[in-house]
Write a structure and sequence with these properties.
This protein is mostly helical and 134 residues long. It has five helices and no strands. It has one domain (2-133). Helices cover 82% and strands 0% of the residues.
């Protein structure tokens, strides 16, 4: 019973990744997302810097989007508690990276929402892994 509840949350995190990283995987949609984030940053007058993206930056955004997109599909199609654990570690690593960029480079706080999603899903998945492993 508890495992089914955990599975729903972990699957939700994979679907979230599928949507967000699907947008990042495609050049035109990633440009629209970056434009939206930049507009949000400006409209809300958020602290931090929102850097201009050059084509080389977009290439890396798209590469990361493609890898993450297929990682999400793998987690949806072949669910296992081991994948939950590794995804949790990846999410916490991404959250640390985001925090570093926000603190050291003063990047826009528009990424705070992404930061919290990564921390919450990351911690939940690692906790679920250890609870089910007992």
């Amino acid at each position: 019973m508890q495992e089914k509840r955990y599975l729903k949350i972990v699957t939700l995190s994979a679907w979230y990744d599928l949507v967000i990283t699907g947008i990042l995987a495609i050049p035109f949609t990633s440009i629209l997302l970056i434009w939206f984030l930049n507009t949000t940053h400006t409209f809300l007058n958020l602290p931090g810097v929102f850097w201009i993206f050059e084509p080389i930056h977009l290439l890396f955004v798209n590469l990361m989007g493609i890898v993450s997109f297929f990682w999400a599909i793998l987690r949806i199609k072949h669910t296992s508690i081991l994948l939950w654990y590794y995804d949790g570690l990846i999410r916490l690593s991404l959250a640390v990276l985001m925090a570093f960029y926000m603190l050291y480079y003063q990047v826009s706080l528009v990424i705070v929402s992404f930061f919290f999603v990564e921390v919450i899903f990351g911690l939940l998945q690692i906790v679920f892994y250890y609870k089910l492993k007992k």
